Amino acid sequence: MNLPKFALRAPGFGGFSAGLVIRAREVDLLSMQGGAVTNRVRVPIEGTEDYHITDAVRKAVEAADLKQKRLAVSIPTQHVLFRFFAIPQVPKNEWESVVQFEARKYIPFKIDWLVWDCRVLPSAAANKLDVIFSAIQRETFRKMQEVLENAGVQPVLIEPRSLSLARLAPMAAKDTPNEFMCLVDVEQDSAHLAIVKDRLPYLTRDISFAPSADTSINTGGLNAEPANEGSVVPQLPIGFDGSAEIASPDDGTDPRLKRLFSELSVSMDFFMREYPSTRISRVVMFGEEGQVSAWAGWLAERLQTSVELGNALLDQRIAGQIPLSFAAAIGLLQASGKTPTMDFLKRSQVKASAGTKVSISAASSAAAAGDLAMALKNPAYVAVGAIIAGVIAAGTWLVDSQRLAEAQRQLRQVTASVPQTGFGFETLPVTRLESLQTTTQAQLDLLTKVVQHQTSVAAKLSGLVQTLPEGVWITKLFYEQKLDTSGAVLPRLAINGSCYLGEATKELSAIQQFQDQVKRHAQLFEGFVSTQLDQINAAKDQQRPDYTVRTFQLNCSASRKL
Known about the structure:
The protein has helices at about 50-65, 95-105, 140-150, 160-165, 255-275, 290-305, 310-315, 325-330, 345-350, 350-375, 380-415, 430-450, 455-465, 505-520, 520-525, and strands spanning about 15-20, 25-35, 35-45, 70-75, 80-90, 115-120, 130-135, 155-160, 180-185, 190-195, 200-210, 280-285, 305-310, 470-485, 490-500, 530-540, 550-555. By secondary structure, it is of the alpha+beta class. The chain folds into three domains: about 15-350, Nucleotidyltransferase, domain 5 (2-Layer Sandwich), CATH 3.30.420; about 375-410; about 455-555, Threonyl-tRNA Synthetase, Chain A, domain 2 (2-Layer Sandwich). The strands form four sheets. A five-stranded mixed β-sheet has the order 3-2-1-4-8. Strands 11-10-9-12-13 form a five-stranded mixed β-sheet. Strand 16 (about 530-540) and strand 17 (about 550-555) form a beta hairpin. The radius of gyration is 31 Å and the shape is globular.
């Protein structure tokens, strides 16, 4: 997909660059000239509605005292979906169509409902190309544009915050092409992590520090309704929800730090298990420096990986000091033709350009019609026009006659060359043909019934993510849809999982809670009539042999007999 590059320094900034980062609870605005920061502003978002974000953006722009409001914009990560997959090695002019086709396997939305962009890269696998795919729901993106417009901001670039952070990472060394790093941006009640290489995110994750919150954090009501009601787009595949925090006695450690460790450990283990040739060499932290510097040593000891602050990455890109919490804004302002970008704004305008051409054509036709109407009011023009019309009519009749004769000749040739129907249909009596038609229609009706009653697997998987209690994760999943003799669909679901909460009674209670939540979730339990818990056992965790986890199997069936 050969998309034009975007140069950040847009006309009208007079050498300045300015960028806006919309975070979970606040907005950051940063302006620079050359490599020096000229202004930085942070404004809290004082509510959960769209207009609260608009107010915060407007206040930030006013406080920065910008003469022009053309800004690069980095949008909240919880609205954005990232996927990493491979496609066959095809010519560059076929990338877009092949990426669209392949992406359907990895997203629970229709591709037409999304504004998306991607980067296509060489792959280590033979005859393959690697794709980093990013998307946002079109309705959510429209609301984001409305927020910016109402705040008086004219965006020149809109990209996900994950990419803004990833742009701070150095390029991978030639002798370590499979070495990744994990960037963590910590806020007061949430965090965002991105596993990156060559300034591109390969896996992203939003983490809430709230005691029993979902890992997706709502920001200002900008989340549009998903493709399937109640669906959630997980950043990790099913079975690696990351919500299974390892409990430990209260030792005075900040519970937010424990939650962050749990999510980091699960995400990094999953990534390296999925891609065995990779290595995550270090974790780099951004956020309020007093907080993240106190956390770095604790995390390094338990992750057994280098954990460092991001000052060195920022120092390479700016002159002077700037808080670590402005890392995403610094990364945003590095966007240029030399660095990767995924510009949702540019991609959203692709279809609009076609509509503009149609409007221009319609306007031209309307103008020509007006000129013709004026000419017909002149008698001389009418007489000349009648003569010309007569000549044209005669010529047209002659040409049409020749065309008709040629068309008739071609029709005779085509008719003579059409092969016989075959199977002896042409010799069968009408009653036999009608019988065959009835049988075929019955088979078609059965096939239509089967297709119409197929259950959306994506909806069930999305529902499954929502039902996982704290301390429970999935290790194996089996789902099938069989047909009975009437064509009815009989689904079956088998879930193998584990639970760790430090106490047997709590673990058994959590497993029972999981079963109850599965039965109460309308989309997940659709088509099933019964559930049964089996094979509840205690076992050593393979990744952490010092811990004993509770394993189980939950079966869901379309019949009462399991």
